[in-house]
Design a protein that fits this description.
In chain A, 68% of the residues lie in helices and 2% in strands. By secondary structure, chain A is mainly α. A two-stranded antiparallel sheet of chain A has the order 1-2. Chain B is mainly alpha-helical. The chains are: A mainly alpha, B mainly alpha. Chains A and B meet through helix 6, helix 8, helix 10, helix 11 and helix 12 of A and helix 1, helix 3, helix 4, helix 5 and helix 6 of B.
Chain lengths: 488, 293
């Protein structure tokens, strides 16, 4: 078979997933058809349960379960009537509010009475947020509803086969045995839903609106703009597009991530090798000297470094120079960029050191001895034995580090704050600066006095796509996911 | 290459070579060690300086070399440092407990149980972890505001611990390497999965539990970005935000408060160092446990 690249294989499987003979839609269609048919042919209890959840269960003496289902339905209806329905309506009406003016509202001409009325303003932000929340609750309700019908169908089947229905106690029992994963997963997943998924969906939607400093609730409304923000980020558009800035930031992000990851990795490994060398004494002392850096919070060490490297900081005093280590804009801010990578080595090498010393000791000593007998020198030993072994063992770790560095906010933000601002034109109001990574640029866009949340969200989506592709490729190719059960 | 030399000479040559290499390595290590430890000593030294009128050190050795605990006294009296300290401790303990429990639960489910949604859930969670956290920060703030939880430490605990499940894979990797025979024996004896989880698997997982506790306990001491968004009330700052604000609040606060900041940083650093160094072994086991495959 022809050897395909990972990407084309991924593309093919994604295509298969959506449009193939066994695509997700077809499978979904078949499942729905089957479900509808089985309900139509189902018992009376099942049919009633479609409308009044839990009644079917109660008819079969599963009273507690039935009451629980019914309570869920009542709660959901109350929620929709008094809160959610309105916002879901707004969400699908295609407009995020119609009345501007915030809490003070706007004067609107009332045809019937023939007077101006003050109408309380809509808050687009809250409409979108509550819309998302309500929609997610709606989806959760649908899930419970399906569970309820499925339970009824199972009951139908059990009765037809003459089996006894499970009592409430037995049901509870399966949750600490066969279905123990349900109670194990529900609390963490609920936490994720509220504090990760909901905010994420919300912020992704923001990428399709014009939520920026000219459209800031509660005073002003914002609205859907389709892919306009993507257009702005990916086009040059006669100076108003951000594409050139984006490319520059993206390029620096990759350069930074590459150097930050590999400099830490190699130098950390070399120092670990030196400490681990046979005959070197005071191993523990050496290790501790480096590791102490980990124990001091990063924001402290980074602010300290910023202070040391400051224009009138102590480094210039020691060297007797007058270099603005973190603010020199010459040659595309090359000095600050190099300094950031060096400081990052100071911060990061202890971590590699810590990780490597353990693994290095695992390398079979016979390999070294055999190579040495064949006359290999220290460099050959390193490049032919140590490095391949380490790369093999820590491959996934390296990719995680690379992704982590793409998102490494702290180092850049605390050292240079993304700056300095050099005189290269960044495109109208993009606010990006010379050492900005995509993340720090994103952060600046949301915290600036003229925030552009919409563009920030688009950048967030771009970061996500880069990181997700990188990590999915690695995780699916590394042994960690394939050979889950090998080591048992 | 060693033709003509006796074995003795050869060994001797090797020995001197080793000694020279060792010497070079000692020099390099000492040099690097100084480079690494110097900023930390600088921090310690600044925190003990008695000339607080300016935080900027313009000379390597200032004219006045007297040291004292003035900055620490100032830190205790003029700032809310110990209040922030208590807040951070509370948040760290609570969120560390919840985080650890969540991660263990998720990892056990993914490693030991087999169910239909397992693979999709694992992939979805992996992907979710890729979104930069800042992106959702504002939305998190408004969700908290909608339920009236901004400016409270409870919100901070929730935020720190609820995203925790996403970093399940190190722990799951560890569980995957645990032998199953014990669990199977326990189940044959009629134990429920619940019992197996608490009585069989967890006692075998000490390294990974300590690792999780260690990392989740430390993060509230270091984060200042999320706190900055969620909390506005100086009474409820954590140490990280308190110290950060101390030198960033106003234009000249850096030079005014830098020595006091260093005093606070030293205290926090000392505590985390003690905590970290005493559990360093488990940290290494945790990091490599997930990576060694």
């Amino acid at each position: 078979m022809e050897k395909q690249s990972v990407l084309s294989r991924m593309g093919a499987s994604i295509k298969e997933f959506f449009v193939g003979e066994d695509s997700v839609f077809r499978r979904f269609g078949r499942a729905v058809k089957k479900a509808v048919l089985s309900v139509v042919h189902g018992s009376l209890a099942t049919k009633i349960s479609c409308l009044f959840m839990g009644v079917g269960q109660m008819m079969r003496k599963q009273v507690v379960k039935g009451i629980l289902y019914l309570l869920v339905e009542i709660g959901f209806i109350l929620f929709m009537v008094f809160f959610g329905g309105k916002y879901i309506g707004h969400l699908f009406s295609g407009k995020l509010g119609t009345v501007a003016g915030g809490a003070l509202g706007e004067e609107i001409w009332n045809e019937e009475l023939g007077i101006y009325e003050t109408v309380k303003g809509d808050n687009s932000f809250l409409i979108l947020l509550y819309g998302v929340v309500s929609f997610i609750i709606f989806m959760m309700f649908i899930t419970v509803w399906v569970m309820n019908i499925r339970g009824n169908l199972e009951n139908d089947k059990a009765l037809a086969e003459g089996r006894k229905l499970a009592t409430f106690k037995q049901d509870c029992n399966t949750f600490i045995n066969k279905k123990f994963y349900v109670p194990l997963l529900i609390p963490p997943l609920l936490g994720l839903l509220v504090f990760t998924i909901m905010p994420l969906v919300f912020m992704i939607l923001i990428a399709f609106t014009n939520y920026d400093f000219e459209h800031t609730p509660p005073g002003q409304l914002f609205n859907w703009v389709g892919f306009a923000n993507f257009g702005q980020l990916f086009s040059i558009g006669g100076g108003s597009g951000f594409f050139l800035v984006f490319l520059r930031v993206l390029l620096w992000t990759f350069i930074w991530a590459f150097f930050a990851t590999f400099s830490n990795y190699f130098f950390g490994m070399i120092i670990a090798l030196m400490i681990n060398r046979k005959g070197i004494k005071l191993k523990k002392l050496w290790r501790t000297l480096f590791v102490v850096v980990i124990a001091v919070p990063q924001f402290v060490t980074l602010l300290l470094m910023q202070k040391i490297l400051d224009g009138d900081g102590i480094l210039n005093v020691i060297l007797g120079t007058n270099i603005r280590w973190l603010a020199d804009t010459a040659n595309g801010s090359i000095i600050p960029r190099i300094m950031i990578i060096l400081v990052n080595m100071w911060i990061g090498i202890p971590y590699t050191l810590l990780m490597c010393s353990g693994i290095l000791m695992n390398i079979p000593a016979e390999q070294y001895e055999a190579a040495r007998l064949d006359g290999a020198n220290a460099w050959q030993l390193f490049f032919k034995i140590t490095l391949p072994y380490m790369l093999h063992v820590t491959g996934p770790y390296l990719i995680t580090q690379f992704v982590g560095n793409i998102n490494n906010f702290n180092v850049i933000w605390l050292l240079t704050g993304g700056g300095p601002i050099d005189n290269i034109n960044y495109g109208g109001g993009s606010q990006a600066q010379s050492t900005d990574l995509l993340v720090t640029w994103l952060y600046r866009l949301t915290t600036d006095t003229n925030p552009r949340y919409n563009i920030a969200s688009v950048i967030g989506i771009v970061i996500f796509i880069i990181c997700a592709v990188l990590s999915l490729i690695t995780y699916n190719r590394s042994g960690a996911t394939k050979n889950e059960e090998v080591y048992q | 290459m060693m033709k003509g030399q006796t074995l003795k000479e050869k060994l001797l040559g090797q020995r001197t070579r080793t000694a020279v290499t060792d010497g070079v390595i000692y020099v390099i290590l000492a040099g690097l060690g100084i480079l690494w430890i110097l900023p930390i000593l600088f921090l310690l030294y600044t925190s003990l300086r008695v000339t607080p009128e300016t935080g900027i050190i313009s000379k390597l050795f200032p004219d006045d070399l007297t040291l004292g605990f003035g900055n620490y006294v100032k830190l205790s009296q003029d700032t809310l440092f110990w209040r922030w300290f208590g807040n951070t401790l509370l948040v760290a303990v609570c969120s560390c407990a919840i985080t650890t429990l969540f991660i263990l639960m998720v990892s056990y489910a993914f490693s030991r149980m087999r169910f239909k949604l397992r693979k999709p859930l694992m992939n979805v969670m992996l992907v979710l972890g890729m979104f930069p956290g800042f992106m959702s920060m504002i939305a998190v703030y408004f969700i908290l505001k909608a339920v009236g939880l901004t400016n409270s430490l409870f919100a901070l605990i929730l935020v720190y611990s609820c995203g925790a499940a996403l970093s399940y894979y190190v722990c799951k990797g560890f569980f995957d390497t645990l032998p199953r025979s014990l669990e199977e024996a326990a189940i044959l004896d009629g134990a429920s999965q619940w019992t197996v989880f608490w009585r069989v698997t967890l006692p075998l997982s000490k390294p990974i539990i300590v690792y999780t506790i260690l990392t989740s306990f430390i993060s509230p001491w270091c984060d200042f970005i999320f706190v900055n968004t969620i909390i506005n009330d100086a009474e409820k700052y954590t140490v990280a935000l308190g110290l950060y604000r101390m030198i960033n609040a106003e234009k000249n606060s850096f030079s005014e408060n830098f020595t006091v900041f260093c005093a606070g940083a030293t205290i926090v650093g000392a505590i985390i160092s003690a905590f970290f160094l005493s559990m360093q072994r488990y940290y290494v086991e945790g990091v490599t446990g997930g990576a060694v495959k």
